[in-house]
Write a structure and sequence with these properties.
Layout lengths: L1 E6 L7 H14 L4 E6 L4 H6 L7 H6 L4 H4 L1 E2 L5 E4 L12 H7 L7 H11 L4 E6 L5 H9 L2 E7 L2 H21 L5 E10 L4 H12 L3 E6 L3 H7 L4 H4 L3 H14 L1
Parallel strand pairs: 1-5, 1-6, 2-4, 2-5, 6-7, 7-8
Antiparallel strand pairs: 3-4
Length: about 250
C-alpha cells in the first residue's frame, strides 16, 4: 500500500481539494483508496460525508478499531477515516490528541497504516493541517511520498521553502530518506498572470514534477453538493491535471 501525505504549512491553498480529487481519481481507476482526514477542521469529512459513527481521534486513542472508523463515500472504492470538527470541552478530540499525545507516539500512523493495509487498501492519502509539529511528523514517518500544494503567490512560495526546510530537518533528525518529495501541485493558476510563469520557472529549476490545476469554480459547487470534482464535472484542463497527478503517484 502506498502512503501519500498532501501537505504544506499554509492554509487556503487547496490541500483538501487536491486530497479528495486524487483519492477519487485513483478510486475511479479501480484502486481501493482510504483518505485520512488528519486536519482538525474536518473539511474532507464535511465534503464527503453527511454523518459518521466514529472518527480518527477515537482510533488514535484506541477507543475503537481501525475498521470501525472507516466509512464508505459516494465514490466507489473511495473510503474516508473522518474527523469530527467539533472540539467539545474535555473530549478526546483530534485537537486534544495533537497537543497532548502525538509527541509520545511517533509511530502511531505507521501502526495504523499497517492495519489499513490488512483491509486491502492500495493507497492511503493523508489530508494534513497547515502545520509541521509532532503530529505531522508522525504522518511523515508513515508516508512514502509527500505532495505539496501551493498557489502562484509569494506567500505560498515562502510556505514552500519553510515546508522544505522542516522536511529536510525531520529527515536529518530521524535519519530517514522518506517521504520523498518530488511533486508540487500549483493550484488555481491563471496563466495570464506573469507571476505564474516566474514561479513555474523556479519550480522546474528545482527539478520538481509540477501539476497545474486551473481556477475552476466547479470545485466550490462540488463541495457544496458533497461531490468530487469528477462527479461534478470540471474543466477539461482540471480533469487532465488530476489524471497527470494520478499517473505520477502510481
Amino acid at each position: 500500500m502506498k502512503k501519500i501525505a498532501v501537505a504544506i504549512q499554509k492554509g487556503g491553498v487547496g490541500k483538501t481539494t487536491i486530497s479528495i480529487s486524487l483519492g477519487a481519481e485513483l478510486a475511479n481507476h479501480g484502486k481501493k483508496v482510504l483518505l485520512i482526514d488528519a486536519d482538525p477542521q474536518g473539511n474532507s469529512t464535511g465534503t464527503l460525508l453527511e454523518s459518521f459513527n466514529h472518527d480518527l481521534a477515537e482510533a488514535l486513542y484506541g477507543d475503537v478499531t481501525v475498521d470501525e472508523v472507516i466509512s464508505p463515500t459516494s465514490v466507489n472504492n473511495l473510503y474516508i477515516m473522518p474527523t469530527n470538527s467539533l472540539d467539545r470541552k474535555g473530549s478526546r478530540s483530534l485537537k486534544t490528541y495533537r497537543s497532548s499525545e502525538a509527541s509520545k507516539e511517533p509511530f502511531i500512523f505507521v501502526d495504523l497504516c499497517d492495519e489499513v493495509e490488512k483491509l486491502g487498501f492500495d493507497y492511503c492519502i493523508f489530508d494534513t493541517s497547515p502545520a509541521f509539529d509532532a503530529f505531522e511528523e508522525n504522518i511523515m514517518t508513515a508516508s512514502d511520498e509527500v505532495i505539496v500544494v501551493i498557489k502562484a503567490d509569494g506567500y505560498s512560495q515562502d510556505g514552500l521553502q519553510i515546508f522544505k526546510n522542516n522536511l529536510d530537518s525531520f529527515k536529518k533528525r530521524k535519519r530517514v530518506s522518506n517521504p520523498k518529495f518530488e511533486i508540487i501541485v500549483l493550484n488555481e493558476i491563471n496563466r495570464t498572470v506573469k507571476l505564474t510563469e516566474i514561479i513555474t520557472k523556479g519550480l522546474k529549476a528545482g527539478d520538481f514534477k509540477v501539476v497545474y490545476v486551473p481556477v475552476d469554480q466547479d470545485f466550490k459547487y462540488a463541495t457544496l453538493a458533497r461531490q468530487t470534482i469528477q462527479q461534478r464535472g470540471g474543466k477539461e484542463e482540471t480533469l487532465a491535471a488530476l489524471k497527470k497527478l494520478r499517473n505520477l503517484v502510481k
